[in-house]
Amino acid sequence: MIEKVKALLLGHKKLSILIGGILILAIIGWNVFAPKSAAPVYQTAQVTKGTLISSVTASGAVNVSNKVSITTAASGVVQEIFVKSGDSVNQGDKIAQITLDNAGQQRQTAAYAAYLAAQNTLNSDTAAINTLQVTLFKTNQAFVTDRGVANPTDQQKADPVYIEEDAAWLAAEAAYKNQQSVIAKDQASVSNAFETYQSDSATVTAPASGTITDVQIAPGMQIGSSTSTSTTTTNLQNVANIKRDGQMSVVVDTAEMYLGSANLTGAGLGAKADGKRNFEMGIWTRSTALIESVLEQFNTLWEGHYCKKCRRKDICPVPLEEPELVGPGK
Predict the structure, then answer these.
(1) Average pLDDT value for the chain
(2) Which domains does the chain have, with CATH numbers?
């Protein structure tokens, strides 16, 4: 095909010149009239030092990890307050004493009865799991010593005795594991029942260690139930707050969390000077596992569970209180 075109052009010189001229004019026209892309425009400015602000917006109830509310569901008259703002308390310390009214006494009695019932259920199920554990051990040993082998053949698996002993062992194991789940639920029920009893109790205690702030009740003050013509509504009364040492986290509706870091510097943790600057890091997460882990860790720490094994009691004899400075001139 190409050879035929060449022969045609060579045989018609005028046609060849005309086509060449058209191509040259097309190239020139494209270069002149074709749209050209705009040249990039750059904006310059003098370098300055300032503060970079970045924000994350979320909606919901914010739980600050260094503040705990002391509340009570008791109803009656405040008889005595044992603390004031600025006092240091440990978990379980008495905060206030309430003289309960009739409704308050009934709720306290019912809550205590529910707690005892939950505890009895737990004790009963705990005793049952011991029996199940014995059965599990016996069926396991019967299978292992009689028909149990590391890698049974198909023929061995078809043995009626093998099938029976293996099934008995698996059934005992399933019953034992199921009872473990039952006990876990019982323990949760006992915990919830005890919290309800504490909330309805005439004695208000500190839920955590820290410093008392914002005391909101006074002796002689009426607190608790609001009674209407048909129903009695129980409202939680905020007694005071407990301030604990700050932790770098903010949790929103237990669904979102900001988790910050310590100050990492060339001079150590938290230090800053010329040539030594803080480097802050943090994350915003919706990870349920991470949020629950952080909340559990903070509660375990600030409720004083690590204090029993602490090896610095010589300078911090009271959990979570500011240690007294000692030394020359102190």
Answers:
(1) 75
(2) 63-244 (1.10.287), 247-323 (no CATH)
